Amino acid sequence: FAELDLSNDCLQLLLSPDSPHFRLSTFGYMGSAHADYPKDSEMVECFECRQTQVYRYKVCLIKPSTKALNLSCKVSVRIDTRGFLSLQYMIKSEENQVSFVEFLCAPDEEMEEELDDL
Question: How far apart are the C-alpha atoms of 50 and 112, rounded to whole Å?
């Protein structure tokens, strides 16, 4: 998320079997920003996507999860067919104990309707 402007209203996730495989985008009054991650990137351990999916989420709902992101050593991103987003963070303590923190977020229906109108 560091490459994106989290002061914007909207975070869009695009997942596709074709390039760009995983794209994070923010949109707002100050403009837009995009970050692309190919499926063969060093940051991607496993990538599964059968069809292109695009969903938008309110940044104010995603932003609290960045605290766990900063502490995590691995992140799992999953989106179901309804657009529900699951962000699961694996966090290791100083004693090497592993904990998981999971955030769930529904897609923004108003923004989805705007996408359908385009």
Answer: 20
Q: Using CA atoms, how far apart are residues 50 and 18, in angstroms rounded to an integer?
A: 10
Unique residue bearing structure tokens 């962000």: 87
Write the pLDDT tens digit of every residue in 35-83: 899 999 888 889 999 999 999 999 889 889 989 999 999 999 999 989 9
Helix (H) or strand (E) holding 66: helix 66-71
What is the pTM (predicted TM-score) of this model?
Answer: 0.80
Token code pair at residue 63: 């932003």
> CA quadruple 105, 75, 39, 26: dihedral positive or negative?
positive
Residues with Cβ within 8 Å of residue 15, at least 6 apart in sequence: 21, 22, 49, 52, 53, 79
